[in-house]
Amino acid sequence: MNVPFFLARRIRQAPIESFSATVTKVGIASIAVGLAVMIVAFAVLFGFKQTIQDKIFLFGAHLQVSKFTANQSYEEAPISTNTRFFREVKSNPGIAHVQAVALKAGILKTPDELAGVVLKGVGPDYNWQLIEQSLVAGRVPAIGTDSARAATGPPDTTAGYSTEILLSQFLADQLKLKVGESVITYFLGGSQPRPRKLTVVGIYMTGLEEFDKQIVLGDLRLIQRLNNWTPDMVGSFELFVRDFDQLDATFRTVFDQIPPDFRLFKVTEQYGPLFDWMVLLDRNTLVFLILILFVASFNMVSVLLVLMMERTPMIGLLKALGSQNTLLRRMFLYVGLNMVGWGLLIGNAVGLGFCFVQDYFKLIPLDPKNYFMSFVPIQWDWGVIGLLNGATLVLIAAVLWLPTLVINRIEPVRALVFKK
After folding, report:
1. What family is this protein classified in (predicted)?
2. Among 134, 219, 143, 211, which Cα is nearest to 185's?
3. pLDDT tens-digit profile of 182-220?
4. Domain boundary among 243, 268, 293
């Protein structure tokens, strides 16, 4: 028979109204609350980071390749899709998707309002998946089809391109535009501005002002025509890596492939402040994790010391009967581990339950103007959840061994008359 385990079980069977039972509940509650808070904190942190990254990747690819130019405006030097680099980079094992885009500055004008914007021209190879998740009205433009024609001025009417555009909720509110309405867009270039009548077919919202205040998505062929480019000319290539954690490694392989007159940017460089902010969140969460584990460990040490104090006469009796200190220490260690087990079980139930409810029902809203999202996001990472459970169990189990050292200093004679 496992004597320490048997004695530990008898200790746990103390009457509900006893002081030791109350202290035990406090110990279990401290672990449960600590673990639940850690699970929720990490799920929300990862959800927040993933949401912000997805919003950045709406208009900022993992890697961007463009031509060297001294021009600091949105007027880009053209790159041909017939280049050797464009063919080779598609076969790079670290690259998941490549798409050609171009930028053109313009002004959206309605009878009452106007707004400076940047038209991002995209082609049939553009990945709309992330954009579709941010749609609040309408649909994405039908790119690559001659669904419409230019509205004004020769010779542009001879070239077919889609006049459908997708703009942000911010611009739609500013210009008082709705899905299905048309807007005149003036593009600079040449001796005078060139107007085009474009149709709003969709409205998106990211919550990131850097995008919402200026980015409009349209047909790449429109920009090609405005810039007098041939059909194979684009402004830049956007590259998406297979594993974002390997961004730096993929950057180096792509850098070795680009011609000398090309330049390569990482999204972490283009939007450095946002990524630095997320790194700061990681550090704050680590400090938070350490504090939670410290408080839980301190509570468990206190609980175990109280239990040993209450059981001092029993310890003295067992020592008088010949029990070794190791046996008595293992007995109280089993008591502590039992509390840890119940605390982990309850903490997982509470933490995961809260995350499931928030993930499916979106009960906690957020102000998109301040948090870039309309509700608290949840990101599931079972590896991290398992690591939190394991770290809590191992750390507290190691800490629980320390208060049991007090047993070595308890003398049987004094312990037997402790209550007196």
Report:
1. Belongs to the ABC-4 integral membrane protein family. LolC/E subfamily.
2. 219
3. 999 999 776 788 899 999 999 999 888 888 999 999 999
4. 268
